[in-house]
Design brief:
alpha/beta; 249 residues
């Protein structure tokens, strides 16, 4: 249509009016998808095929898809509001989050970035090694500056003061810059043990208690997430394990 120029004529416009050709828009979208660093495992993930990959799931999964679609439709980069997708392993959190990124790239031209929480912390730690070329700032700059950041599996690294400080730096920087952050986590969005512990709690009950998001990232940052994100809970079985078991049945 554009004979390789990147511009196509606009029908009915006098004096040869032109507009960007579709081939340029597709090329730009492809470049932005590549820049988002979506792992190969999740390249197929779309909002449109979510229910296909998770058939017969818990009702909360269908509601989560509706919330994701509404988030894309109502997306306003100026308000910085994000999503916190909370649920067990294999409930489709990452699929849904990647689907959102793709939709925002295609429909809004938003600069998006996928970050695996564990891998990001590893890259930051490696930057302290003198033999590594990248500095901490070079690792973190795209994380700070992305229009929309997907931070996958928040809390997956054993907590330490350094981990808490790093999480605080990332989330507070994006919060202060009013940038949108989408987060997935396998840990329940509940307070840390230090908050819920009481004199009436038995040692056995304390020992049996599962770790929460407050335990893994610190209660102060969990509270910050309540300001940054709307919480979407995704319940149900691990579909990866379910399909794996079915294949051997």
């Amino acid at each position: 249509m554009c004979a390789g120029s990147g511009w196509k004529p606009v029908p009915g416009v006098p004096d040869g009016g032109v507009t960007r050709c579709d081939c340029q828009l597709r090329a730009r979208g492809g470049a932005m998808i590549a820049a988002a660093r979506i792992p190969k495992r999740y390249e197929h993930c779309e909002l449109s095929n979510f229910t296909t990959d998770f058939p017969g799931a818990d009702p909360s999964i269908a509601l989560a898809q509706i919330s994701a679609s509404r988030f894309v439709q109502e997306f306003d980069p100026r308000d910085g509001a994000g999503l916190l997708l909370v649920g067990g392993i294999g409930t489709g959190k990452t699929h849904l989050a990647v689907g959102i990124l793709k939709e925002l790239i295609a429909a809004r031209g938003s600069a998006c970035l996928f970050c695996d929480y564990r891998e990001l912390l590893k890259q930051i730690q490696n930057s302290y090694n003198d033999s590594v070329q990248a500095t901490e700032l070079q690792v973190l700059r795209p994380v700070f500056e992305a229009d929309v950041l997907l931070l996958d599996e928040l809390g997956a690294v054993k907590p330490s003061e350094w981990v808490w400080d790093t999480v605080s730096l990332i989330l507070n920087t994006r919060y202060n810059d009013n940038r949108t952050t989408i987060i997935t986590t396998n840990f329940a969005d509940e307070p840390a043990a230090s908050v819920t512990r009481s004199s009436s709690s038995s040692p056995a009950r304390t020992a049996a208690r599962e770790e929460t998001l407050g335990d893994r990232i610190g209660e102060r940052m969990r509270s910050r997430l309540q300001e940054m994100c709307r919480v979407v809970r995704m319940d149900g079985p691990d579909f990866r394990q379910k399909f794996k078991s079915a294949s051997f049945g």
